[in-house]
Amino acid sequence: MTTQYWLVKTEPTAYSWDDLVRDGSTAWTGVRNYAARLHLKSMQPGDAVLFYHSVESKSVVGLARVTKAAFPDPTDKDQAGWVAVELFPVGPLPAPVTLAQIKAEPSLKDIALIRQSRLSVMPLKAAEFAKIKKLGKG
Description:
With 138 residues, this protein is α+β, with helices and mostly antiparallel strands. Helices cover 26% and strands 35% of the residues. It is globular and about 40 Å long.
């Protein structure tokens, strides 16, 4: 199976990169956006993920990997069909990649992080993922 590439966003006060590292893995729960749900359903074990801190730092801070494909979100109390995936921390980026850096890079002008800034789970092309990783000196 071909690796897919993703970016997930979180407010670090709710769940941070350090929390993921401490926990060793996490179920990516609580996503309540239909487009993001479609992306979660497309994620497969082995897919590569950029971990983005929103609100305060607005930067990509780490690399993660999908370890479990979509399953019913245990926080979905209404059983409305929301799903979660399991993520595993691969490692921090040597240098965070800020939203300003991403916006300044012409090859990243079309990524969903810029076009659909409220979307919390988004696909990336392999070249976009590689470029952001390179900006983080990874």
